[in-house]
Structures
1.
Amino acid sequence: MSEKQNQKPAIAHGKSISSSALRIMLVLKWLVKYKQLDEETLRGLLIEYTYLNRSCTPETFSKYINTLTTLGCDISKKSQGKGKKIYYILKKTPFPISLSLGEQILNEKIMAVLSAQGQTLLLNQYFDFLEKLWWHTDKEIKPNTRLTEVLFEKASAKHKKNLQTFNQFCKDAFILELQYREEIASQIVQLQVEPYQLVERQGRFYLYALNVASSSQVVLLIDRVVSVHQLPTKNKYKQPLSHVVFSLYGRLASSYRLYPGESVVFKSEQELHIKASVLETDSIIQRLLKYGVSCQLLAPLSLRKIIKKKIQEKNEFLTTF
Amino acid sequence: MMQNAIKKNKSINSTAYRIYRILEWLIDKPLTLTEINMRFKNDPQIGKFLSSDSVLFYFNTLKAIGCKIQRPSPRNNFHYRLLYHPYGFALSNQSINLLAAVKQTLQNAFCHQEILELDIFFKKILTTENPSYHQPVIDYVPHSKTTTGANQNKSAGHEKQLQIKALFEKSRSVDYANFESHIKILENICNINKQLLIDVEYNSPVKGKENFLFLPELLFYEEGALYVRGERPEFSFPSSLRVDRINTLSPTEDKKWLTVLSARQKELLVIEIQLFVPKKELFEGTGLKPQHGVYQETLHWVDHAEPEQCHYRVTLTVRDFFYIKQFLLASPFLFKILQPDYFLVDLKTALETLSAYYEKDNQLKY
């Protein structure tokens, strides 16, 4: 098919369009999406595209790339593999997001705070995110400037291995057999657990899992895992969540903003009942106690007993001389 | 002529070239047909004006690629406005969860200005495919009333608005985009310590709309919301108002109340507590700041042969008890109040009321 024939207006949604321009802009769209594609794939995609069920010769395709490079798109060409496939690599986005110096400094602050708080998991994920984002910006230098690089290395060196290994275990969802040093007696016990989620609190990593033997949730401190290996059996259950219901009174009931995972189950002028699904209960107990007389935990009974005990202890101690 | 002197590149597709340029220009800002034609004329590769039919043809092609463009009309001063293009940084739901988690983690470490900067930055990333979000609205038109707006909005802009909403919901925070002027006024008063009394119309969660005088002291961000702390004539202790609940605010000349409230700001009290901590390293401080009514905190470690007697003597200079009471109730450590007595009585009453709540297990409905 010659270029002249291609230039005959095509019809999209009842309106005439330029099919060759559409093809060129589509090539750019796919290169933005995949960053690197071989010519064969790109030409195949063009043929498959709804309005353009026509072939595309190598010469025409070269003209498309030439148009894009003339427009300023940073596209390079390289041969690779056994069949010497021709790959097109888009080095930078054609329509960059402009990042101000203030925004770059802000990102360094974000990384510094995450690092200082020992949020290695989040720091790693945010760093990966920034690397992807940088391709779409007008900045040549990636965020791993000296400062962030140092922070990143410092933060990740300590936990990198555990992070990657246990994150992968959670993704794979195979039962784990592990040796674990107990906190109190320091004895090493053998456990089989279904891993669900790796959580970081105050710089320490915890594995939320289900103990296969007792069918109850366990929270294991990663530092205390002596050895671990995967068994060829998949997790049977979904991640167990604890469901908590609490009531709020007075001003707090009127102004309360729901936390993620919370829903209102009852509402009156004086009272608000909230149902929360939480991974662990320690944090929510602490938060509910903070609300003082404006809050009461309604369910489950087991948590009510824990709160009751805490309050009684505080009350008795407060007036002991 | 100038354009004749520039050698045109003939091995390119000129239609694609023009379409790409239109997209590039519209990402920058909305343009009229005349403005687009002026740019065509000035472009070395084009160098001429084009007919309206040609431009329409180019717009149809852009739409076929997936761009959403608002048509010119009297309502938008006859500008073409790009609502969406498919070449931006596409974010998955997982990325939004990540941004929300980052924001939530930073909320207690960043000051309110940094949090507001962070909000703007995250919104900018979320809307890279929606340049219209950042472009000034030429003439505001409700989406339901525009000819093309409703459908375009659903497919592109609306989706992004939902992503922004999700970001704020997941990080349990308030979007302060519409409160810029209130924030500027309050920052101006608080940051340079101007003793300026204001008249506030406030949307109270309990009383509904109410008007009162207020002497702002400090702006602070906490748990996803921006507050202004200050004095009100009705209360002897300071109040914290949520900025997004302030409907209107205006300076007032009331000298009498200004004198009273300024004096009240300086009425500080001292609280002394024994906090029983088995190991010194387990406790670093209450984490309370001036925004919590705590202006000074000293910790004195008292070691003892019996670990259960080891404690910190915590001395706090405070303006009110609200946050210190919250801290003590939530603390994992046991405590005693050395002074003042009425704070001890207040805490004792609270703990007894709480104990009573948990006596009636048999009446529960959940």
Note: Chain B touches chain A through 80 residues (CB under 8 Å).
2.
Amino acid sequence: MARVLDDILFVALLVLVAVIAAFLIFPLIVAVLMAFDARTYLGTFPPHGFSFQWFYRFFNDEMYMRGLKTSLLVATISTFASAIIGVTAAIALVHTRSRARQALEAIFLSPLIVPTVVIGFALLLFFSRIGLFIGFTRLLCGHIIITVPYTIRVTLAGLVGIPKSISEAALSLGASDWRAFWTVTLPLARTNIFAGTIFAFVFSMDDVSVSLFLSSVDTYTLPVAMVGMMQSQFDLSIAAAAVFLMVVMTTLMLAIDKIFGVNKILVGK
Amino acid sequence: MTRILREKSQRLLLLLPPLVVFSVLLILPLGNVVDQSFRVFEGGSIGAAADAHLTLLNYSELIRPTYLFYFIQTFRIGFVGSVLAVTLAFPIAYLIARMRSQFWRGIASGALIALISVSTLVRVYALLLAFGPVGYGNQLSAILGLGQNSAAYTEMVVLAGLVYFHTPISALVLIGTIQGLNSELIEAAQSLGASRWKSHLSITIPLCLPGISAAFLISFTVCVSAFVIPLILGKGKVLFVSNLIYNRFSEVANYPSGSAISVVLLSITLFFVVIVPWLFTRLTAASSG
């Protein structure tokens, strides 16, 4: 009797999970399918016919392309800067005594805790006060501070995993500190540095909150352009933009997951 | 001796770039916000004048019912959203953690990660389509007995958005917790005659409570400072505290007031991220010995 009840409950669990999974997946299916709608106006789901017209419009729209170009530039440069800052910070941290290290780590990871809207608002006020009005530089600075915690965290995780004895062996064989680091430690932490860098890139491309504060009339990122579109007109070129972003970002994230494990970065263990 | 000295100066040299970046791009701007939040608002310029008078007005006006309403709304929707997210996440996590085949477990958690990695804005837009007139907005609002443009339906959509974002993350947190359980305890209960579902209710769920509360705390903290979800799905009818900060900047250009709201939101977040976990560990340490 108990076994029958168990089986019934197990089937109920399966059904429940299937319903939740449908809730999680269905909206994305709607967005992806609508991006290929052949109607020239915004009709109801499901789409009628198949066409690339919204993609054509996306790739030929000046606003989207301007945003995409800025996004790619900001993401590339800020990721590069974050990677360098992250690596230097992580190396300094592994060699620091535990109490100072805890305090420094708390500071370095704090942008993950401060709400991004607060970071964006604070930077906007601060840049205006010190007279920094160049849109691109503003965006770049904002993206560095929100991505650098990830490069620090992931690089640090890699450096902690390297036994001290390996670099000590290099030192006792006569290598200088610098050489031991450059030829022994750094190559061993390479995977983590790489994973942290891709993650920073994805995070920069994804940001809305900070960019919305720091964008100007002629310098804005792709997500900011998309938010503008969503609020002013409801046109399926946004769906095409969404599919484009989805393909690029999901490929990158699955690549990091293969190399490193995304849940380690997100959950922190 | 010289070696130790050299290492120390090298370390300081390495710490210099991150410390400069964090001072200029985080600590100084946040300090400036705290300073601005106590200044008298004068229209027309970005930020109060350097010699503006000090005031508590920016904070005291937040206690007025109009502002208090937004704080309560944020907490209410955020609370319901994270409770629902953790509730929906538990069965998913349980099923994945207990899968026998490592291959399918990999596929299932890979699917969760793929879902999380879809750009925030893309997911918000997908929800906007699916719950709007293009998708099933007409039918859903009719079933709920609400007008499609009513504030109540908009609130439901914002809530669905929070649940949508936090269910997969909570599931990832919970998978670790459930996998870490000692399965011998459950087997022992079953061998002593408990049915499977009864052993789960009396053993699995209580043992998972720390993980469940961690998942809830993470998602509640993030929900309370949610910005993009209410910005797009709320359509101006449902505003969270974050949206108020943005409106202070984009609509009324009242920076001292925006600063005060930022300080309050930051304090709330720090309370849940630092103080609550600290209290929690003290309490569990006290109760276990």
Note: The mean pLDDT of chain A is 87.
